[in-house]
Design brief:
The complex is a heterodimer of chains A (about 270) and B (about 300). With about 270 residues, chain A is α/β, with parallel strands linked by helices. Chain A is built from 10 helices and 10 strands. Chain A is globular and about 55 Å long. Classes of the chains: A alpha/beta (about 270), B mainly alpha (about 300). Bound molecules: adenosine-5'-triphosphate and magnesium ion. Chain B: It is a multi-pass membrane protein.
Amino acid sequence: MTLLELRGLRKEYGGRIGQAATVAVDGVSLAVAEGETLALVGESGSGKTTLVRLLLRLTEPTAGQVLFDGGDLAGLTPARLRAVRREMQVVLQDPYSSMNPRMRVTDIVAEPLVTHDPAVRGRARRPGLRERVGGLLEAVGLPAAVQDRYPHEFSGGQRQRISIARALALEPRLLVLDEPTSALDVSVQAQVLDLLAELQRRRGLTYVFVSHNLAVVRAVADRVAVMRHGRIVEIGPAAQVFDAPGHAYTRALLDAVPDPDPRRARRRKAG
Amino acid sequence: MTAPTPTTDPTPPAARGIPSGVRAVLRNRLALAAMAVLAAMALAGLFAPLVAPHDPNAQDLLARLRPPAWLDGGAPGHLLGTDQLGRDLLSRLVYGARVSLLVGLSAALLAGVIGAVVGLVSGFLGGWPDRVLMRLADIQLAFPSILLALAIVGFVGSGLWTVILVLGGTGWVAYARVVRSEVLSLRTRDFVTEARAIGAGDLAIMRRHLLPNVMAPLATIGTLQVAAAIVAEASLSYLGLGVPKEIVTWGAMLSDGQLYLGTSWWIAVFPGLALMCTALAINVTGDVLRDVADPKAYRR
Ligand SMILES: Nc1ncnc2c1ncn2[C@@H]1O[C@H](COP(=O)(O)OP(=O)(O)OP(=O)(O)O)[C@@H](O)[C@H]1O
Ligand SMILES: [Mg+2]
């Protein structure tokens, strides 16, 4: 079943009088099935983040449509759009700037709950809220007691976990991750990826996973979409894109990174 | 680890450490002094009836134009001397502190609230609200606020709250500009984007994410504005357009005293000194506050 569908999405920036517009996303159409992981790869500046912002409706597209669960996100009333936002959450690239430095972890993780459920606001509801936040933190492998700390007291990997805990607070159906592991070192990266895989098994989450780390993509993706200059030049099952890339650009991308799995590297060269 | 040799490290650690350490101590001493002055002013103003030796408006025509107690002809009962109507200068200074601090704090607070709201809305929403508000700010700046204050006081009539409203209503531009520029950089930060993705509304984002992050610069400007408002009130009172005559203010004292500067200098000099010390102390405190709020600048 299709959860998310993009139809002819286009985004131009600038383009005032006498200036050519930058086309950041140029006619992207794709569909993401419920429960799958779609990876979005491509060089820096190829439009991945812009596409993420478009599909989350954080930016208005110049043209095209975003359909979530069959409904067009354009033209929704603010209240309806908020209701849809409950179901699609995001974890952004930089764990250092994605948290308000003046908020405690409790309030950071509880923000989605408080935003969508006014009933949990207020001092009286505080104990219940703390309990829920504690449960979410434990789900991402952090002790519930870290709630009273501020973001700067955590390492990059821990912050990333906090971001994921926050994104999971509303039990969304779609989780969009923009380079969720690029700021992490390799061992922490592996922990975060394991966590994501486990959550997907348990809750049937759908992921849109942006990365230029092809080793990571290989490990998590069911399907891979390759972006270049705002367009999708190749899309297909991960094994196919990695082992038999159909587009010259994809081959160049793959050759540009050392393959962490020597067996597959050999296979690819051989095949 | 071995001690650094002069050839590899020309500056020994001690020589590198001392200047910044001395500066830090000096800074703190100055800050301590400034805060002590402010505390003394505040306490004196707050407990004026207990601190002041005389009724500030009580005239004693037999003891007119007495110099301070330590000079020839000074009376022991009037430590800082008396004015042309025989009123005790020390008592008047103490009561004046009350008005100055009340006006300074209230006006700065009012201006701060207006400025913060304008800066938040302008910086966060952008577009036409931004253009309209910033145009207003330009107009406000182009018009000397003391002139505007004069016009309004002249029109509405003088009074303590009129002065506070006028000074508060004209002092918001500095806050608004700084808050706006802070917000312009804050609003592209990932935590604001995420809040929006979560579904938080504009108001919630401003209150939860933007306002707490602009409090430090707000407080810094606030101190400067307190000093500015105190001086502005004194100027208005000096011109006779501040608060009614029965309320003692430093500005009115200055204005009374200028006629007697040649013969009885103390009438004008003491309120002048009080005004200067207060403004200076507030500014020093504000400086230190800024350094503390910006850890990078503090360590330098
Ligand atoms: N707000 C903006 N205003 C103008 N141009 C923009 C804006 N955002 C993105 N662009 C342009 O759109 C293009 C795509 O940018 P985008 O951030 O989507 O790339 P990306 O694939 O996410 O890159 P990276 O891998 O470095 O994160 C770039 O050329 C960029 O300069
Ligand atoms: Mg990006």
